Amino acid sequence: MNPSVPKFAVVVQPSPIDGMGVFAAEPIPAYKKIGELRGESISVREARRRAKRQQRIMIVEVSDKRAIDASQSQDAMRYTNHSCSPNTVLRIRQGRVEFYALRPIAPGEELTANYGETHHEGTLPCRCGAPNCQGRI
After folding, report:
1. Residue 39's domain spans which residues?
2. What is the pLDDT of residue 62?
């Protein structure tokens, strides 16, 4: 299997949360790996420089020295939007950014992750719509 292809079928389409989103195209069982975020490996310094120039960020720091910039990637998982009540968890393993289902995910459901602290430093309104929404990212 090509490692850049998600393990479960997903589709990218307009999201009610923000811009484009990635949606389950088949049932995804709880706790299963869905896929990985692929992109350019860059230094954290370069990642933070790039993040300051962009409104929509597709960069994840994988260590105190390295980051993955997926902004030019063709990987569908780069469209995983933030939610304060996510259905996936992002795990960093051996420099890889992996997404796992937190619960069963139904076809048509948008895949979301809680990205925690971001370069927006709480200045960007959160649009996740979750009952427990923190209001800012």
Report:
1. 10-113
2. 85
